[in-house]
Write the structure tokens for this entry.
Amino acid sequence: MSIKADFQLDAKGLSCPMPIVKTKKAMAELVDGQILEVSATDKGSKADIAAWAESVGHQYIGTVEEDAVLKHYIRKCAQESANEKTFESTIELEQIVGRDGLILDVREEAEFAFGHIEGAKSIPMGELEGRLSELDKEREIYVICRTGTRSDLAAQKLVANGFTKVYNVLPGMTSWTGELIKTI
Amino acid sequence: MSNKVAIIASNGGLFDAYKVFNIATAAAASDKEVAIFFTFEGLNLIHKQGMNALPMPAGAEHFAEGFAKANVPAIPQLVEMAQELGVKFIACQMTMDVMGLTVEDFVDGIEVGGAVTFLEFAKDAAPSLTF
């Protein structure tokens, strides 16, 4: 399947350090939270892109290989991402396992594709408002993202739209140690 | 963590150039502040004519084909990219005097300085690399 990205960068045929240099330049065009797809044929780019993202503070989501082309997915992160969480109804990650509610994953599609909790439903934060009708108001909803920041905002949005059984899952997928389902 | 990478380029071959400029551009692309001190034969790497025809090590000439096949960028292209990414080039004044070179012999935008100029930059850099 193809993975949704906001921007595509073609770095095929280029050797080190060009994929990194091009990625850096392309990243400047993205706004926070958007996803860049980098296509490269340099086999070293897999380790390099991950190390580069780690070094400059962006989120390396993952890499898929199709016909000798490596597609890397990176999500742009602001330097100061220590946003305050204000939604009061929270639930710990361990407590949602085996509970009879819906796990709503509000990360981007690419992040979801590279690993999510079994049974979780994917609605990226930016699409939530338009897709509220897919959710059941009678059922408990555990909103999860990577660290608990986007899910905090999503939970507030749900409550503002008449949902009452809403919990923000803390910490978030970064602390999930259970099985990860991939759809790539 | 230090945000500076300090590089000394003291050799003038094609392999040396790739080592220097690949590390420098990769570091600059990772938001590091990078300075390269070009000294002795290293000055070749930013010499307007010299950088277009850097020698391969003796016996390694057959790698030319590999460079073409791997689509490795040419050195002048890497030099331009490094400067565009904000890598600072410092040419060694003493070597220039010995070799009879002036700032006009080099690519635009370089600084000329002595050992202390580089040491001042490098004092809190990590890593410091020599090629």
Remarks:
- Residues 45-56 of chain A form the longest helix (12 residues).
- Helices of chain A lie at 18-27, 45-56, 109-113, 149-160.
- Residues 7-75 of chain A form a domain with the Translation Initiation Factor IF3 fold (CATH 3.30.110.40).
- The longest strand of chain A covers residues 59-66.
